[in-house]
Amino acid sequence: MSSLIITGGAGFIGSNLVYRALRDTSGPLVVVDKLTYAGSLLNLTEALANPRVTFVEADIADREAMDAVLAAHRPRAIMNLAAETHVDRSIDGPAAFVQTNIVGTFVLLQSALAHYKTLASHEQQRFRFLHISTDEVYGTLGADGLFSETTPYAPNSPYAASKASADHLVRAYFHTYGFPVVITNCSNNYGPFQFPEKLIPLMILNALEGRALPIYGDGGNVRDWLHVEDHCDGLLAALERGRLGEKYNVGGGNERTNLQIVDRLCETLEQLRPASTNPALADKGSYVALKKFVADRPGHDRRYAIDATKIRHELGWAPRFDFESGLRATVSWYLENAAWSAGVQSGRYDRERLGLKPSV
Q: What is the pLDDT of residues 24-71, one digit of tens each?
């Protein structure tokens, strides 16, 4: 009973976690992923060459498949990152978010609980189920204040509501069945392998191609940015040292408006690949000239900000990346990995606007 199962391990955060776990843990790693549009084996090219890694293509909402994975690999822990995550897509099609984030989490919990009951007492004491969630479950903040672990849930999008539901299920399995769970809620992640529907990679790739940089509303929506590698460090800390039944907020302490993010990305691109050397910018002159304010997202939360005091004090976690160096490293990564960007988007996504016209 030494394997670690990472569901959603072919996605953005999941793939980064796989690489971090290969570096910082021992024993077999089992990656489970449905391989939807945002999950790609291109994210795991190096990991899959490692004999410690086994990949299983499966849906966490498939009970038979989950039972088979747990029976075959007898994990010491499960880290659940499998989820639909893009708010805009949840506006256009909430059903997929209900199915994966709520039903899928329920099915995985049922399968994991059944597996847990077969374990010897000493194995049960070691077993952990870490559920990875989002700060969006808390709703929106005003001009000041921070989300803490005791902030009431008030989700405002179908995505946030589906993740809130999943969090409640995980909590209930601890209190009702004594199932050993830990929950984490993170702020906005950025870094390598992020699918280009999200703000930072979308802006980078659009800018490089001379396409418009769409800024929702007035660009004043605030997010707290966390480098994905720092997040993965926090997840492993929560898995190994987190108190059972507890939740931990993981935030970078880097509040920025969307407009500030876009402006900083334009500045960084100008330093690393000047507009004057980019043929796609021939008729624009600068990356900043590509900015375009567009209709806001329906129900767009104004501000998120995380209080990470608990995970810092209890688990000794702290982010290593400052935002400026982390953002520059991220831009560099996308500049150096154009083939990856083309591969993950091919036939799946053309960076079109989503979530403008609500339709269920």
A: 999 999 999 999 999 999 999 999 999 999 999 999 999 999 999 999
Cα–Cα distance between 264 and 204 in angstroms, integer? 11
Range(s) of the domain holding residue 43: 3-192+226-253+303-320
> Are 181 and 170 contacting, i.e. CB atoms less than 8 angstroms apart?
yes
Q: Per residue in 261-274, pLDDT tens?
A: 999 999 999 999 99
Q: Which residue has the tokens 């083309």?
A: 342
What is the SS3 assignment for 186?
A: strand
In a domain, 285, yes or no: no
Query: Which ranges constitute the DSSP H helices of the chain?
Result: 12-24, 63-73, 87-92, 94-97, 105-117, 121-126, 158-177, 199-208, 228-241, 258-272, 309-315, 323-336, 338-345
Look at residue 45 and tell me if it is in a domain.
yes
Q: Which of 100, 107, 85, 102 minimizes the C-alpha distance to 34?
A: 100
Residue 328 lies in a domain: no
In a domain, 230, yes or no: yes
What is the C-alpha separation between 228 and 223, in angstroms, rounded? 15
Active site residues: 135-136, 159
List beta partners, residue 306: 147
Distance CA 260, CA 285 (A): 20
Q: What is the pLDDT of residue 360?
A: 47
Q: Are 91 and 298 in contact (CB under 8 A)?
A: yes
User: Helices 199-208 and 323-336: crossing angle, nearest 10°?
Assistant: 50
Show Cβ contacts of residue 321 under 8 Å, excluding neighbours closer than 6 positions: 227, 229, 230, 252, 329
Domain harbouring 127, CATH code: 3.40.50.720
DSSP-derived secondary structure letter, 39: -
**Number of domains within the chain:** 1
What is the pairing mode between strands 29-33 and 213-216?
Answer: unpaired
